[in-house]
Design goal:
Blueprint: E1 2-8, E2 14-22, H1 41-49
Antiparallel strand pairs: 1-2
Length: 50
């Protein structure tokens, strides 16, 4: 995988912050299309109302 970090200026042009670098993919990551349930207090309060 290749990553490049850049900043977009107000006029739409880009400025490179970090040059492109090769990054090895992570191993052993569990792939899923579902997000885990939110554990913040605000979402916990909403879940109690249901």
């Amino acid at each position: 995988m290749t990553l490049r970090v850049y900043r977009v200026r107000p006029d739409g042009s880009t400025a490179t912050v970090h040059e492109r670098r090769e990054v090895p993919p992570a191993e052993g990551v569990a792939w899923s299309t579902a997000f885990p349930p939110c554990s913040c207090p605000r979402c916990g309060e909403r879940g109690a109302d249901r």
